Amino acid sequence: MAGKLTTAQGTGILLVTANVGSLFEDPENLQKTWLREFYQTVQSHKPHFLAVHCQEVGGKNYAASMSHVDSFVKELLSSDAMKEYSRARVYLDENYKSQEHFTALGSFYFIHESLKNIQQFDFKAKKYRKVVGKETCSETLESTPSLEKEKFPQDYFPECKWSRKGFIRTRWALPDCCFDLVNIHLFHDASNLVAWEKSPSVYSGTRQKALGYVLDRITDQRFERVPYFVFGDFNFRLDSKQVIETLCSTATMQTVRTTDTNEVDKLIFRESDNDRKVVLQLEKKLFSYVNQDVFRENNGTSLLEYDKELSVFKDRLHELEISFPPSYPYSEDSSQGKQYMNTRCPAWCDRILMSSSARDLVSKPENEEKSLLYDNIGANVCMGDHKPVFLSFRITAGAGKRNANKHKCCVVQ
């Protein structure tokens, strides 16, 4: 890493969220590309404190991918690009045999050698401990005192079928402030046909309930309230009914049903003229739209009006302006860096959100344009089906002092 890092101008923070499931399906190609782009982002922003929240660690077949997970973690901890990060904490939920606990979440934290006096909260002892050395924890995270980990209650799961959805929370104290970092994975849309039925969709309601659960947990009375950042794969989707009605406003819809059950099998939207050209074909796991450019032009921001799931939490969660294309579902073909898969309507699933008090910490010094950036990683190359998303910012000296009366830990010595 070029240049000497100091904290004189404040503490540089880099938060990254990445659903890495694809990496373990093709470790030779995808993993190398992913790491290269990740290291370039780190070297570009030179954070003092780096947090990487991963979901779907190990991919779809965790048992078969365990060795790939180990090599991925080893590479991150020992690479030349990360050698100035003298302290690290890695938390991997690897207990895939436990249905009621397994989340496949991985939380990685790296601390630069120039950052002095950083502490991590012990949730059992209710006190901070100095962070020294590098540690990896992958056994039962439920009993690890330096974090809180929960899988959502089973009645939150659609059709009460277990899947790997939950959250991990850690708490950190810098010399000037403290904050919670929450790694989250919410429920996906199981069927495009069901998502299209009403606005908002039934899946949107399930995600809303789960996110509300997390926010209530991290702000309850058990611990001092502190600023918090929640970042991960929220699986937020565009309002399917509204976006399809817009994309196919001049088309006519044909409904195809199965012969045995008479259930809707597919919807075909055709232009009224132009030889009845198919505009969109919609099936349970197919979203084949005639013109993918609409999701890429101007970074797809014309579709942000249909990105509504966060609005329910507008008083509790904030986000910087989105200026990058939908983060999912990209092609997993290593030669198709910008192509979306025809499985789902592209959406901004991967996000970095924050509380009001955390937003106060993310202030942009007027003389430093690049000090605040919310963007994706690997825009032009294949990073798997999700593009990682990052937030880079600088906490200026004394930034947390104004919160000291509200948050005692902001003046930790």
Low-confidence region ranges: 402-408
What shape does the CA trace take? globular
Strand element count: 18
How much beta, percentage-wise?
A: 25-35%
Q: Could you name the CATH class?
A: Alpha Beta
Distance between the termini: 30 Å
For CATH, the homologous superfamily is named as Endonuclease/exonuclease/phosphatase
The chain-level mean pLDDT equals 91
As a whole number of angstroms, the C-alpha radius of gyration is: 22 Å
Total of helices? 6
Domain unit count: 1
Kindly report the CATH topology: Deoxyribonuclease I, Chain A
**What is the succession of H and E elements?**
EHEHEEEEEEEEHHEHEEEEEHEE
* Proportion in helices: 10-25%
Largest sheet: 7 strands, mixed
Strand order of the largest sheet: 7-3-4-2-1-18-17
The computed structural class is: alpha+beta
GO molecular function: inositol-polyphosphate 5-phosphatase activity
Family: Belongs to the inositol 1,4,5-trisphosphate 5-phosphatase type I family.
InterPro entries: Endo/exonu/phosph_ase_sf, INPP5A, IPPc
EC number: 3.1.3.56
